[in-house]
Amino acid sequence: MEINWTRAAEGWQRGGRFLAAFVPPDFTSKWDDIAEGLLESVTMTVVSTVLGLALSVPVAVGAARNLAPRPVYLLCRAVLVVSRTFQEVLIAILFVAMFGFGPLAGTLTLAFATIGFVGKLLAEDIEATDPAQLEAMRATGGSFLQGLAWGILPQVKPRLLGLSLYRVDINFRESAVLGIVGAGGIGATLNTSLDRYEFDTAAAILLLIILIVMVCEYVSGVIRRAAL
Amino acid sequence: MIFQEYALIERLTVMENALSGRLGYVGFWRSWFRRFPTTDVAEAFTLLIRVGLSDMANKRADALSGGQRQRVGIVRALMQRPELLLVDEPTASLDPKTSRQIMRLILELCTERGLAAIINIHDVALARQFAQRIVGLRAGVIVFDGPPNSLDAAALTAIYGDEDWTATLGHGGKVAEDEHRSAVPEVERLAGLA
User: Fold this and answer.
1) Which of A179, A182, A191, B30 has the fewest CB atoms within 10 Å around its CB?
2) Is A102 domain-assigned?
3) CATH code of the domain covering residue A114
4) What are the residues of chain B with a beta carbon less than 8 Å away from any beta carbon of chain A?
5) What mean pLDDT is predicted for residues B2-12?
6) B147 contact partners, CB below 8 Å, separation of at least 6
7) The complex's ipTM?
8) What's the angle, vertex CA B40, arms to CA B27 and CA B46, rounded to 5?
9) Number of folded domains that form chain A
10) Which among B5, B8, B31 is the nearest to A146, CB-wise?
11) Contact of A144 with A66, CB cutoff 8 Å
């Protein structure tokens, strides 16, 4: 590889100018776009996390060796593998092609990725549960579902809560990336501002993303302390 | 069924553990929202008072001591209104005094309710003290069947194999004081042979 030292030296200057263009951040001139993008991202985050969790819990039960019969186990493991194989951006490109530009494609992408993430880790936690508690619930005459709700859920609840809160965090951050491939959210707004060389607006968006992630972190800490 | 090592739902409260004995009689959503019939809740309270855990109802099971946990296990089993109590090594991880308290409690409750209990236990002294009938199994075959005072060194050797049994039996031939009318057979069996 050839290194052009003059170009590398000039690069530092260019980089400096690029960064300088970010200050001061401009929250006001494109505020309506920013607010709309943020709201879209938050909506995508909430919907995709709820949808993803609703789907990942049954998949996790199916992917737990101690609960599911072999064919169900293999099927659910296959779903998890497919979900985790492809990076969010790749899935988003596919969904954008399927459902068109906009937050629908992004939301489905994040929900799909949530299944792989929560499903796998929850399945492992289910496999590590104490079998005696499930056995006791079945022995009292409880159905399979009651066995899950009483014999398994109390044991995996802290993990499920932790994973869910962490996934909210991830889904919000990912929603900022997915906009770049046209899947909606604050990422779309960010991408537009960068394309227009409105670096001060981009800076404002980045600061707001950081702020929201920090708020997420704080809220998840509060929920965790309250629940456990 | 009363379990070895209790098998309680550790993260649920004592009351929830007691009510879990009714799962077979309550629909999924009722049990999910903890909407058990008031008669079940009243029965759970009565039993918790009976075993001396009335002020523990809202404590989590993992906050209890071994003896207290097994009492919850007993309450859960009785909540099913059983006709026969299956008891698997109820004292496996309890100290000698607590073991005797738990065995006595099981026996008293069985007498009160006219219940029979089949207890699987390896503590010969406990079996002799509390059981009315002892059945010894070896490799799935009954090798002893009789009252506790007829369980002698020869019988123990037949059940477990050669060993010096004098200390095990050496309580001056003190025999279980059984004032109970309920049939409480005792099953002895070798570990690992179900």
Assistant:
1) B30
2) yes
3) 1.10.3720.10
4) 1, 3, 5, 7-12, 20-25, 28, 31-32, 76, 79-80
5) 91
6) B132, B133, B134
7) 0.79
8) 160
9) 1
10) B31
11) no
How many angstroms separate the CA of residue A117 from the nearest CA in chain B?
25
**Rounded to a whole number, what is the distance in angstroms from the first to the last CA of chain A?**
55
Predicted confidence at residue A164, as pLDDT, reads: 93
From A227, which residue of chain B is nearest by alpha-carbon distance? B11
**What's the CA gap between B35 and A169, in Å, rounded?**
35
Instruction: Return d(Cα A214, Cα A222) in angstroms, integer.
Output: 13
Cβ distance A154 to B12 less than 8 Å, yes or no, reads yes
- pLDDT of the residue at B160: 86
The low-confidence residues of chain A, meaning pLDDT below 70, are none
Query: Which of A156, A167, A178 is closest to A107 using CA atoms?
Result: A178
Residue A161, phi then psi, degrees to nearest 5: -65, -45
Within a domain: A202: yes
**Cα A71 to Cα A79, A113, B61, distances in angstroms:** 13, 23, 36
Average pLDDT over residues B38-56: 93
Do residue A140 and residue B5 have CB atoms under 8 angstroms apart? no
Q: Residue B170: what pLDDT?
A: 63
Separation between Cα atoms, residue A80 and residue A162, nearest integer Å: 19
Would you state the structure tokens that stand for residue A218, as one six-digit string? 């704080």
